[in-house]
Each structure stands twice: as structure tokens, then as C-alpha cells.
Amino acid sequence: MTILDGKKISNMIKDEIKEEVDQMKDRREKVPHLAAVLVGNDGASQTYVNSKVKSCNRVGFESTLIKLENTITELELLRQIDKLNKNKDIDGFIVQLPLPPQINTQKVIMAIDPDKDVDGFHPANFGKMALDMTSFIPATPFGILELLERYDVETKGKHTVVIGRSHIVGRPMSILMGRKGWPGNSTVTQTHSHTKNITQIISQADIVISALGIPNFLKAEMVKDDAVVIDVGITRVPDDTKKKGYRIAGDADFEAVSKKASFITPVPGGVGPMTISMLLKNTLLAREMHLND
What we know:
Blueprint: E1 2-3, H1 6-26, E2 33-39, H2 43-59, E3 62-68, H3 74-86, E4 92-95, H4 105-111, H5 123-130, H6 139-150, E5 159-163, H7 170-178, E6 187-191, H8 198-203, E7 207-210, E8 228-231, E9 235-238, E10 246-249, H9 254-257, E11 263-264, H10 271-291
Parallel strand pairs: 1-11, 2-3, 2-4, 5-6, 5-7, 7-8, 8-11
Antiparallel strand pairs: 9-10
Helix pairs in contact: 1-10, 6-10
């Protein structure tokens, strides 16, 4: 069994990006600039955005953090997005989700310039991805592809079962694993809360990608020997023995499932760290696109 070490690969990618940015600086070229919009005081969102800023500093990117009150109106937020769209100094930006209830998330995503949408959520980018055109791939699915590639995990001709159908992970992952090329060329079954005989379907999978958010849902008896298990789930489970009062758990019963799997991602330390690295890669791509503007 091989651990797909997202923390290690993420650091490797950041080192590669830093080397590229150092060369830009030597040539006195513009370095990539990533902006993040944070609305409100959600603890998890703040932690994630702070990690992005820290990662930008590490690789030599310019970064801008825009903090807005939880009470902001939708119109005010859309005005802020319009400013970022028009700011030629900024290559890409993200609006951290979730947003407060008074704001229509879909309207916000639609307002972002697709050429600056480094989260890859805009329908224009999602459509390009589905058509195998160059686009920004959502960071988490992009990170999974990178892990599979760097660990040389065979996907061609394999049966991939995706658990979950969110626009952020499940749906794009099902498209990407079935595309021509590598990682890809697998036969994909997408499952969700209404799937009948889900246990039986999972038991036939060569590759299981679980993005359900239910701790320890995936049991050892549900996966076949030598299956590849990609655990995207990340849930805070109350635990009085921990200093923070909780522990982080994935969708898979790691202790038991890892004994049967050929490759498996741990939680934490698997898919999670890859997300920020791939956001940086998308920003690098955005900068290249804007050089010709």
C-alpha cells in the first residue's frame, strides 16, 4: 500500500513554482498576482484564505486580501468583483465560499471574469473543461489529477466510481476521469444519495473517489483488494481528547481500508494540501494568458 502524500507533493509543486517566479524576477518580468475576497468571519474560511496568502508569499506571488463585512449587500460585492475584473495588475482572484444568505452565490460566480476565475467555477471554464479545452480546472479535482500523475497511478481502462455530485468536486471529477488522456480514459460511474445498490457498485471499482462528507462512510468490506482510494471528505468530528475539541476525519475508515488499498490518500494530508498548490498553478496560467492582452 502506498500513501498518496499530498503534503509532500504540494511542497514539491510550490518549490517548482517558486523557481519559475525567481526566473521571472531575474528577467524583471511581472510576477503572478492572486487576490482573495473574504466575506464575514467564518473560521474555516479565514484559515483557508490565510493559507493562500502564506503560500503566495512562499512562492513569490503578489497577493491581495480583501475582507468584507458579513452584512455586505449583493450589489456592493458585485461592485468589488467588477473592480477586480478591471484591475490589470491582478491575474486571478477567488471569492471564498460559502457566502452569507443575502447573496446569490451563482450570481457572484457568473460576475467573475472567466479569464480571472482561478477557482474554475465559472460556467465558461466548466464548459471548456468538459470539452477538453484549455481552462482553469477546479483546484481540488486538479489536485487529485496531479497526485495520480505524480504517483504514476494507472487510470486507463479502469473502473472509477465517484461518490458525490457537487459542482466543486464530484461532477468535474467524473468528467476528468473519463476524458481522453492521462490521468483519464477510465470508465466512470457517478453515485450519489439516490443511487441504489451503492455498496455493490463501489465494490466493483478499481478507483474510488469519495467526496461525500460523511466520516468513515467507506468501509473495508466495500472496496476490493488493491483498489485506489481518493478520500476528499474532511469533517470536524467532536473529540474531547484533542486540544481543539475535534479531530479531522475523512470519508474512508482509513485504518481498515488502507490494509486493502494499493494507493490511498490520508485525511488530513492527502487531497487538502493539493488544493492551494493547484490554485497557484491556475494563477500562473492566468498570468501567461494575460501577457498577450
